Amino acid sequence: MAKRYELPDAAWDLVADIFSEPRRNGRPRADDRLMLNGVLWVLCSGTAWRDMPERFGPWSTVYQRFRDWRNRGSFDQMLKRLHIRLNEQGLIDLETWMIDSTAVRATRASSGAGKKGGLKNRKTMHSGAVGAA
User: Fold this and answer.
1) Predicted confidence (pLDDT) per residue in 21-64, tens digit
2) 38 or 114: which leads in pLDDT
3) Cα 14–27–43 angle (5° rounding)?
4) Is 70 helix (H, G, I), strand (E, B) or coil?
5) Which of 21, 24, 42, 61 is the most exposed place for a label (fewest CB within 10 A)?
6) Rounded to an integer, what distance in angstroms lies between the CA atom of residue 85 and that of residue 79?
7) How far is residue 86's CA from residue 80's CA, in Å, rounded to a whole number?
């Protein structure tokens, strides 16, 4: 059984060819599945790369592998493959649409309004006064 945020065997079998690269001469490459599990752990937990558990290997190696995969488009390929698989199994309802949004309140000052009762925009007020004189 896979640990939290780690791919189970069936999921790895589905995407293994996307993330695995052929072995070259030189230093042995760290296990791709372990590296992917490390990437998923960091992305799902929201922690910093440096705080990743040691069981995934050096954080810098996992981060470098993440960057390589991102630049190659490996994650996009994985999502496309998952989408196709779920659609073939009838698990995607194409008639249902959903838009996710979040309302975030901003302060008055974030739009340049200034504090309540104060000058609205000091820059504008000063430049207008100088231009009028």
Assistant:
1) 877 788 888 899 999 999 999 999 999 999 999 999 999 999 99
2) 38
3) 45
4) helix
5) 24
6) 10
7) 10
Q: Where does residue 95 fall: left (phi above 0), alpha (psi -120 to 50 degrees), or beta otherwise?
A: alpha
pTM of the model: 0.67
Are the CB atoms for 35 and 18 separated by under 8 Å? no
Quickly list H helices, 46-73.
59-72
Nearest residue to 36 (alpha-carbon basis) of 62, 17, 11, 58:
62
Cα distances (angstroms) measured from residue 31 to each of 19, 76, 126: 10, 21, 63
Using the CB atoms, write b or e for 3-39: b if 16+ within 10 Å: eeebbeeeebeebeebbeeeeeeeeeebebbbbbbbb
CA dist., res. 58 & res. 49, Å (int): 10
DSSP one-letter code for 115: S
- Contact present, 62 and 35 (Cβ < 8 Å): yes
